[in-house]
Amino acid sequence: TKHVIKNIPWTMAKNFTVESGWQQIEELISTWDIHESWLHHSEFLQEEKLKDSKRYHYRACWGLPTCRKPIPRATASVYFIIVISKFKPDTAPVEVFYRLESSRLIRRPEECQFREKWLQDIIENKIVYRKTC
Hints:
Blueprint: H1 18-31, E1 39-49, E2 53-63, E3 76-85, E4 95-100, H2 116-132
Antiparallel strand pairs: 1-2, 2-3, 3-4
């Protein structure tokens, strides 16, 4: 069986705002198959002006709080970049990329389905690292 990659329709460049970008990232996250015990907080980080584009940087910070430990022992961040090209028409949709804090690999939501295991691995690695230090 073919695995269906969930994505959302992204706004046109001319309609983009920092707030709408944040809302669309939240909408994308809602399509991810992640257990409800995971909680996250997302935020806008910065706007970056380049020669060929504007880039808007966001972060979603994930944790697994429990009744016994309401403050998670470690968190995992996912960084998003929304790109508005200066060479494409303003009716073109924005481009969206994301990467995990522990990785240089940049992914596109329409090409790769997010996996909960990636968050688990980051947190487990941080906890193991703290125990060895």
